């Protein structure tokens, strides 16, 4: 495993993240993103949020990031478990044997070609696992590797400082630097989640060990942001010594930053100090919390949907004359439309699940547009 970690450090830093800096690839990404529309939504939501919290340390970029995540998840990229058969349209199942990559596959950095076999017509469907973010702008599908790769490119194209984050327990995501909050924000495009770094350990129950972030400027071991069980994580970090990991990362950073301006070096150093302070104090989440800055600005918590619905009046249904006469009260809720129909009162429509409850706690309506991921 040590060799695999060291090889990943090198390839992600020396090849992958530098692709995000290619101006022509960034232009291709920008051509796919409805940037003005997303900015308009961000401005509206920022205005709403700052009404609640006038001293909020958030800006339009923070809200644009949330809109970009939402657009990427719901409108742009698609999850693939099994490809539909390209010959008969039937259901396929991935086989353990991989298919040979073509010259074109290799040109686009294909790591392997999965064989999605159709049991109906016995056809082998090719599913190349592309590692090139430019190609992913065309295919717009894949699993977490493709999602994080393409989303990180989109973040760079929009102008965010972004990192590609690799978790050796088989997941990847993105981090984006918030200039207003002066910290790196966890962003998982597969989940449409921002600033919930304990999602994997606390929410998914992952046993974390090594989580490394890569940008054009530096490699950073960010494991500690994603854990509130530092001792347990340390006990699992046995693949290579801490000294070897530290020296390897320092060596890569030193070479990359050789030609960097003194101002930029100082800026990165200041960020590193802030980040290290964050790392040395493990979070203690309450049940259902996934880290992030729960004690932070109200505007930011509202933006990420973390404060729950605004305080509503307790709902009381008062029977109408018709219902009193019939001695019948009949109410149904449609989860898809998010509305109630009061059948016993001339099919009266009431919109929003919260408008029909007396009290609610720790409950929300989750909309999933990509059912392949469920």
Automatic annotation (TrEMBL):
Signal peptide stretch: none
A Pfam family reported for this protein in Swiss-Prot or TrEMBL: Transglut_core
Compartment annotation: Cytoplasm
One GO CC annotation: cytosol
Bilayer-spanning residue ranges: none
Catalytic activity: Hydrolysis of an N(4)-(acetyl-beta-D-glucosaminyl)asparagine residue in which the glucosamine residue may be further glycosylated, to yield a (substituted) N-acetyl-beta-D-glucosaminylamine and a peptide containing an aspartate residue
Superkingdom assignment: Eukaryota
Gene3D superfamilies recorded: 2.20.25.10, 3.10.620.30, Peptide N glycanase, PAW domain (2.60.120.1020)
Domain PAW: 289-374
GO biological process: glycoprotein catabolic process
EC number: 3.5.1.52
Cofactor: Zn(2+)
Keywords: Cytoplasm, Hydrolase, Metal-binding, Zinc
Family to which the UniProt record says this protein belongs: Belongs to the transglutaminase-like superfamily. PNGase family.
Name used for this protein in its record: Peptide-N(4)-(N-acetyl-beta-glucosaminyl)asparagine amidase
